[in-house]
Specification:
Elements (H helix, E strand, L loop, with lengths): L7 H9 L3 H23 L2 H20 L9 H29 L8 H5 L6 H18 L4 H12 L4 H8 L3 H22 L6
Length: 198
């Protein structure tokens, strides 16, 4: 079976059956349309890239648990996921503004969003080195594959596709490692009760 000639429906079934290459064919087939859809809503290429990657993490999760209902409409299904993530982004932005005004940190506090802020305020700038040092320390508690993923994605600002190619792994595997790394870091942050003010 030549995967490039398969329908989306056939590729989804093949991926669910364990063929990761089928997912890469799906990704390559639709990534341009999905990215344009997200970018049109966000008007920021870096942010659109992050939401694009998060979209495919969600897609992988849903496919693996059988949450995709076969309707022959894979692309519209993915676009709905992307649309919901864009809405979530704007909701979080509003929450961050309200949190900042109250000088408090909520359950939704996202350390990675703050690290990536392009315009840090005075307190952010003063705390950044301390935060970075603590983050480096926590990274030592992660499995090597997850630790490397965090370094490459957050500190070297490399795209998942580039990371996958350089590591000789699929994009699916790269996304999975990043997801587990972030989950494990969040647990470490909670256990250490990290309370750096921003």
């Amino acid at each position: 079976m030549v995967l490039s000639q398969c329908s989306d429906s056939q590729l989804v079934k093949s991926y669910i059956s364990g063929n990761e290459t089928a997912f890469e064919v799906l990704l390559n087939r639709h990534q341009e349309a999905i990215f344009k859809f997200i970018f049109h809503k966000l008007k920021d290429s870096e942010l659109a890239n992050d939401v694009f990657q998060e979209t495919f993490i969600k897609v992988i999760q849903k496919l693996k648990v059988g949450a995709y209902q076969e309707e022959g409409k894979f692309l519209p299904w993915v676009l709905r996921i992307a649309h919901n993530l864009v809405i979530d982004h704007f909701r979080k932005q509003r929450k961050h503004r309200l949190i900042s005004e109250r000088h408090s940190i909520s359950e939704d506090y996202n350390i990675f969003h703050r690290i990536a802020s392009e315009e840090p305020n005075f307190v952010q700038q003063a705390s950044f080195e301390e935060l970075k040092a603590q983050l480096h320390e926590m990274l030592q508690h992660l499995p090597d594959a997850q630790k490397e993923m965090i370094y490459m994605r957050l500190f070297q600002d490399r795209a998942f596709k580039e990371i996958a190619e350089s590591e000789g792994i699929s994009i699916n595997t790269a996304l999975g490692r990043m997801r587990y790394a972030v989950l494990n870091l969040r647990k470490l942050i909670e256990s250490k009760e990290l309370t750096i003010a921003f």
